[in-house]
Design goal:
formate-tetrahydrofolate ligase activity, 306 residues, globular, methylenetetrahydrofolate dehydrogenase (NADP+) activity, 11 strands, 15% strand, C-1-tetrahydrofolate synthase, cytoplasmic, six-stranded parallel sheet, binds 5,10-Methenyltetrahydrofolate, multifunctional enzyme, three-stranded parallel sheet, 43% helix
Length: 306
């Protein structure tokens, strides 16, 4: 009897959100739009990717970005440097890409393998705002903090979380959103986006006091801390929407896991994103969207300036 009542209170099993399907649809949409832009302008959108070092995970993500670009008609160029490259050489490359009309978007794949030889923000800040498709420069980030979304791009991984919520018709206004991990790529921008959408937003990390209790209050729990299966059933409010942005590589059994213990969360949440096949592919599709938007803007400016 007791187990019956207990089971009644559990909403699980949760619906699994298929990020690959969401991403495929978005890529189809932009493939179509890019085709039209190519017909109108005679040029393809161009994306420059800067990589320093040879991290295994970065290699995989960059491969995904190159594949998506190829699939939808974006010309992507990878500039891969040895980890001992001088700062000035990379700065020069960014200046060159800033001035190259074939390049519409520039990203520096983080983390850079520069072991504190210099400050990576000197690189990300050099990217001109109209090509900053990752929104990593401080000027773009400041715009985001001031809710000036029209002036620049929305960071890809944070935008992917919004797209995923949209795909399940999850309203955000008035909801309690708890975001774990305050990185520049995900947590920080997402906090501002959620506040803009009138969510009751908490940004925290592993060191936050009463973290478990705070997570238990979340209608929407977004986890991006890079700590394999850190979030177990105890952290999840029954019926919550759980978005797992974490990707952790286990070198020994070569498996990829998220920051959420998937099987446990499945029994408690109403919706959950898997890893792999969740936020990752949608993030890549958002980069393609931003690159298209940059190219479209470039084309329109060219027309209006003769
Ligand atoms: N400047 C910058 N911009 C980024 O957008 C950026 C970055 N730095 N640094 C690292 C993160 C991570 N990231 C991912 C991209 C694709 C997948 C992806 O497609 N993952 C697949 C496959 C994973 C696998 O097979 O290992 C999946 O989750 O299904 C994941 C993660 C972009 N990032």
């Amino acid at each position: 009897m007791i187990t019956k009542i207990f089971k009644k209170n559990l909403p699980g099993p949760a619906k699994i959100i298929n990020g690959s399907t969401i991403a495929s649809k978005i890529l189809e949409e932009y493939k179509y739009k890019i085709n039209k832009l190519i017909q109108d302008s005679g040029t393809r959108p161009g994306l420059g990717i800067i990589q320093i070092g040879d991290r295994h995970d970065s290699n995989i993500y960059i491969q995904k970005k190159l594949q998506a670009s190829c699939k939808i008609g974006v010309d992507a160029f990878l500039f891969k440097y040895d980890k001992n490259i001088s700062k000035n050489q990379v700065l020069d490359k960014i200046i060159e890409l800033n001035n190259d009309p074939k390049i519409n978007g520039i990203i520096t794949q983080l983390p850079l393998e520069i072991s504190n030889r210099f400050d990576y923000t000197d690189l990300t800040n050099l990217v001109v705002p109209e090509k900053d498709v990752d929104c990593l420069s401080s000027s773009c980030y400041n715009n985001l903090c001031n809710h000036k979304f029209l002036e620049n791009f929305v960071p890809c991984a944070a935008n992917a979380c919004l797209k995923i919520l949209e795909s399940i018709n999850c309203s955000i206004a008035g909801k309690r959103v708890v975001i774990l991990g305050s990185s520049k790529l995900v947590g920080l921008p997402l906090k501002h986006l959620m506040e803009f959408k009138k969510a009751d937003t908490f940004l925290c990390d592993k060191t936050t006091k009463d973290l478990k209790f705070l997570c238990q209050t979340a209608d929407i729990l977004i986890v991006a801390i890079g700590c394999s299966q850190f979030i177990n059933a105890d952290y999840i409010k029954p019926g919550a929407v759980v978005i797992d942005v974490g990707i952790n590589y286990d070198e020994t059994n070569r498996k990829v896991t998220g920051d959420v213990h998937f099987e446990q969360a499945l029994q408690k949440a109403s919706y959950i994103t898997p890893v792999p096949g969740g936020v990752g592919p949608v993030t890549v599709s958002m980069l393609m969207m931003n690159t298209y938007k940059a190219a479209l803007k470039h084309h329109r400016n060219k027309i209006s300036h003769g």
